[in-house]
Amino acid sequence: MNKKILISVGFIIFLVAIISIYFINGATSISDWNIANNQIVSPVINQATTSVEVSQYQNIEYGFVFSLPVTWNNYSVVLDTWRGQILDAQGTTEAAEVISGPEILIRHPEWTAENPRQDIPIMVFTLDQWGLVQDGKMVVSAAPIGPRELGRNANYVFALPARYNFAFITGFEGVEEILQGNPLLPIEAVYLKPKDSGQISEEALRQHPEILEVNSFEVLQASVANKVAIWIDKDAVDLMEEGWLSQAPQKNYPLIMVGYNNGLYSFRDKLSVGTIRGPRVDWSVQKLEPGFSIWMIKEVTENSLVATMKGFSREPNLEALLIVTNQLLGKKSDYCLTACPLIDPAWTGLSLAINNCEVDKIIQTHDNVVKVELKNGDKLEAFEPNIDDVITLAGEVKEKCGQIAVSTE
Question: What residues have CB less than 8 Å from 290, skipping those under 6 apart?
Fold first, then answer.
């Protein structure tokens, strides 16, 4: 029988001096905690406003967040183990190699030994293990069908066991309803910000549980075992440990400075991500806000390093940060987890300016960034939803506004 470890809510309250995990207005947030254990698999009581009818279970060891209805507040988590067999050369289990991995059970608060309720089981596979399952080379149950994928990140696949609810115990219908809502999301970015402030609003963070908010360097450090983007608020720079961003593995992760629009200032002079050469600049005479800046190492050879560094002189809304994060992670332009489709709010204002014949010149870049110069001298910048959308829009207003100069770079 697999050994199961039940972590009760009462026990978590007892350990609140050691581990404090909480959600502010529904945004995933972790306060300082003792990282000797280096994993969080524990019940979380949502502290959302009444307008947010969800609770969040967040697991930084494997890098995912799971949304639950508020009726599951005070839930507990059971750590279990799945077991499988890699088929032998004859395709049988007679001489099969036994393999195992973690299984996480989210348990309803009304569950008791006398009156059990349906758990939410989440099997965690490495990518190689999942490949064996998909190829029919490993079996993990007696069912004729395999587990169902719930989501994945760069290191793991999360799956639902086949026939997990065939016992038809109390609550199985409710669990199936939860699962139909695609509740599991991989953590896309970890956002270091001061506890009660920051460039991204709490309302925006509530809409995107795949963004993990942290308020200390220690928790940031513990939250990046899986490849994610690292967002650092300009007001949280002093929380960082010098030299950490230039160490593996995080040195190869996408990095965004939220609040400053100059890459050289952000990554050479504020965060010191590595050896970045450039001119000395009197930053006191430069306009560094509003905006955000990005940095990511693309390729390292024996004698050189190729990196992307760029600044954006515009409001740093969450949608724009997610769009550029997806680009840096190599995800498709239409990739979206929540609040889809992912549209940059600045695109609305830019489109309106074109439609109102206020635009004198348009510049489109290869990464879907559109910059326009207005006839009054002002400038606007936004991510277009699809490449060449701005060219199409300019063509649609040609008769009304005349020819608008368009260039690409």
Answer: 259, 261, 313, 314, 315, 316
